[in-house]
Write a structure and sequence with these properties.
The protein is α/β, with parallel strands linked by helices and 267 residues long. It is 43% helix and 9% strand. A 5-stranded parallel sheet has the order 2-1-3-4-5, sandwiched between helices. α4 packs parallel to α8, α5 runs parallel beside α6 and α6 packs across α7.
Length: 267
């Protein structure tokens, strides 16, 4: 002991020894390097064409569209994602409102803007000459891309259409509204509500930009979203049970809303 130092009580000395020993046992754990966190996936470019790699159905439908283009004339072409593909839920509505125009449906469920770009770049518009092309695409981008990116991608699609089909008029739809979707247990979670709100911000922003593309002649913009909303601003389940895809009643509303403008553009 150093001169003048205060003696350490035997029990306190024992406690200090035990604490030091315990710290020594833990020190290798404390000194470990924290586990590396997973690198987030790179954000896709909504304006660059890309196929759905590994998705056999995507390529099967793409091939069927190429064949449809070679099999006979198309007067009106619908191009888009599952909402467009879903006209098959209401074949009677499709036939009643559009049958006179030799209409074809090039919709693929799950498509984003980049998938439609790839499809156009890989021949889907090469063998056809529709008088009007009805376009709606972008809702599936809304979880990853903001409104400006979606609008820019839609503009790229329109440029490709005009390059491939210079005589075709484009009926550009506002991207339809969507609400919170149920999980596998049939429950709408708080996270689902937040996701829907975030997506609608992107969709509304994109639609505001797309509206500016209407030139009164070769490009016409049509926003019928109010028809899918109730008085409280939400989507009634009787027309969109999953808050994204119309059912037959929803397609009836769509057909009634688009028919006057489509008829005008077909003259």
């Amino acid at each position: 002991m150093l001169p003048g130092a205060t003696p350490i009580h035997p029990m306190r000395k024992l406690l200090l020894i035990l604490v030091a020993g315990f710290a020594g046992l833990l020190s290798p754990v404390w000194s470990q390097t924290p586990a590396a966190t997973a690198t987030p996936a790179a954000k896709s470019d909504a304006s660059v064409g890309a196929p759905k790699t590994g998705n056999a159905r995507f390529f099967e439908l793409h091939e069927s569209f190429l064949a449809r283009g070679k099999s006979g004339p198309i007067g009106v072409l619908f191009l888009g994602d599952s909402i467009t593909e879903g006209w098959g839920k209401a074949p009677h509505v499709w036939e009643k409102y559009f049958g006179q125009y030799q209409t074809a449906n090039f919709g693929i469920g799950g498509d984003r803007t980049q998938h439609v770009i790839w499809r156009i770049e890989n021949g889907e518009l090469d063998a056809i000459s529709p008088k009007v092309l009805v376009l709606m695409i972008g809702t599936n981008n809304s979880g990853e891309h903001n409104g400006a990116e979606i609008a820019a991608a839609d503009k790229k699609i329109i440029e490709l259409i005009q390059a491939k089909l210079p005589r075709t008029k484009i009926l550009l739809h506002a991207i339809f509204p969507r609400g919170p979707r149920k999980n596998k247990e049939g429950v709408i979670t708080y996270e689902a509500v937040l996701d829907a709100q975030k997506r609608m911000v992107a969709i509304n922003t994109a639609n505001a930009e797309l509206a500016k593309l209407d030139n009164g002649t070769t490009i016409r913009y049509l926003d019928i979203n109010a028809r899918f909303l109730g008085n409280d601003g939400t989507i009634p389940h009787i027309i969109m049970p999953d808050q994204l895809h119309p059912n037959a009643a929803g397609y009836q509303l769509w057909a009634e809303a688009v028919k006057p403008l489509l008829d005008e553009m077909m003259r």
